[in-house]
Specification:
Blueprint: H1 10-28, H2 35-45, H3 49-54, E1 58-63, H4 68-79, E2 85-87, H5 95-103, E3 110-114, H6 120-127, E4 131-134, H7 145-159, E5 165-169, H8 173-179, E6 185-189, E7 208-209, E8 216-217, E9 229-232, E10 235-237, E11 243-245, H9 253-268, H10 273-280, E12 292-295, E13 298-304, H11 308-315, E14 325-328, E15 355-358, H12 362-371, E16 377-378, H13 382-388, E17 393-398, H14 400-409
Parallel strand pairs: 1-3, 1-4, 2-3, 4-5, 5-6, 6-9, 13-17, 14-15, 14-17, 15-16
Antiparallel strand pairs: 7-8, 9-10, 10-11, 12-13
Helix pairs in contact: 1-2, 2-5, 4-9, 4-10, 6-7, 7-8, 9-10
This protein binds zinc ion.
Length: 412
């Protein structure tokens, strides 16, 4: 219950204090924000701390393969119309980082929390959320399709019988499968560009039919539910059929879909779509993603694409040819060390753009582009790639650690 003023027990208070101290030490040592180490220390001292902190809040969880950080920010911004919000805005999305974020928000009414897909069921059990937003599920580099299906199954089991309102994407069959064990679901027609993980029926393994925007299984009858909210071009349609314009500083169709879902979440807390959508305009670049920086007299737009679905969404938002494109791919720990996913991405969408290729795995990428029949240049580093392009806008698309390298080099 929000507004519950019952104080934390002494052990929990000690855990919060010790966690903050550990985070401060970690910061002084130059190891980032310290929120993860702080949260780990806190949970060691009081394993129930996350549940205790959540008890004082109306909790909203957000999970997905792509777009969860952005959507968390959009929902947080929308709900501020109705009360103070605490959020793990920097994307520390496992239990320690979440605990740390909530420990910093004792006056908040809402806790808007991004959750890593693998932790959703556990965090939902601990925090008793009022709402859970589920956007999409597709393979990450580290996973194959079968693991994505297992994740959906885990969500389905974890969310069965939850009291939370689930706000879920009706256009993603895996999301529908995961959410439909819940008694209270608000369906949003948010679209799905990446369909490669959703050709087989999550219920029976049959082949999904996809006439137009609809989908369904002829074998078992599992099918797209009726959506009461929808993304329609640049508008959100609410359950009354009213169309509300979306104005975002963030680019691309995927972010409009995130805005539609966020408006549906805000409405479950009494914030009207018009108010919610107006507030979302305030959200700018998120942890450097979508940022435009000037480097060597060019304007580089920095775009993060972590997995095949993310690459496809990114291709759909870049400026048209002849805008130059720099692609950077690494295969270090956080990226997944296997680059076979490159073959899952349709790079022919880049035809017509001058393309420069960098990163640890530039040769893997070069082979892929060669087979796709694209014209490209392999460059030694960011500077060389940027100099290949004339002054003006350059779209730079990088996977996870390549993106971090890039931001360090261009000073952002
Ligand atoms: Zn089926």
């Amino acid at each position: 219950m929000a507004g519950n003023t019952e104080p934390l027990p002494p052990r929990a208070k000690l855990a919060v204090t010790a966690g903050k101290a550990a985070a401060a030490v970690s910061r002084v040592a130059g190891r980032g924000s310290g929120s993860v180490i702080g949260g780990k220390v806190s949970l060691r001292l009081d394993p129930d701390l996350l549940a205790r902190l959540a008890r004082h809040l109306d909790v909203i969880l957000v999970s997905a393969t792509n777009g969860k950080t952005t959507t968390t920010r959009l929902i947080a911004e929308a709900l501020r119309a109705s009360g103070p919000v605490v959020s793990n805005a920097l994307g520390a999305n496992m239990p320690a980082g979440i605990t740390s974020a909530l420990a910093g928000g004792s006056d908040a009414r809402y806790g808007v929390i991004e959750v890593d897909e693998k932790y959703l069921a556990g965090v939902a059990r601990d925090t008793t959320p009022k709402a859970i937003a589920l956007l999409n599920l597709s393979r990450d580099q580290l996973d194959r399709a079968a693991e994505t299906r297992m994740l959906a199954e885990k969500w389905r089991e974890g969310l069965a019988g939850t009291k939370a309102t689930i706000i879920a994407n009706a256009d993603d069959p895996l999301i529908v499968w995961a959410a439909s064990s819940s008694p209270n679901v608000v369906w949003v027609a948010a679209g799905q560009e990446w369909k490669d993980d959703a050709w087989s029926c999550p219920s029976c393994g049959g082949v999904l039919q996809r006439p137009g925007d609809d989908w369904g299984c002829a074998d078992c009858g599992f099918r797209r539910p009726h959506a009461t909210w929808a993304l329609n071009g640049d508008y959100v349609l609410d359950p009354q059929g009213s169309a509300w314009p979306i104005h975002l500083q963030l680019p691309g169709r995927a972010n409009k879909a995130n805005a539609a879902t966020s408006a549906a979440v805000a409405a479950t807390f009494g914030v009207p779509p018009q108010v919610a959508l107006e507030r979302m305009y305030a959200v700018q670049a998120i942890a450097g993603r979508y940022d435009v920086v000037t480097f060597l007299d060019r304007q580089l737009r920095l775009l993060l694409a972590k997995n095949p679905a993310g690459w496809l969404e990114t291709f759909s938002l870049i400026d048209p040819p002849p805008t130059p494109v720099i692609l950077s791919v690494n295969a270090r720990g956080a990226d997944g060390t296997d680059t076979s996913w490159l073959w899952d991405v349709d790079y022919t969408r880049l035809a017509g753009h001058p393309i420069m290729v960098i990163g640890d795995r530039k040769l893997d990428l070069a082979v892929r582009l060669e087979v796709a029949g694209l014209d490209f240049r392999v460059c030694e580093n960011t500077d060389e790639a940027v100099r290949m392009a004339p002054p003006g806008r350059i779209e730079v698309i990088a996977n996870y650690t390549a993106f971090q390298d890039l931001r360090r080099r261009v000073g952002n």
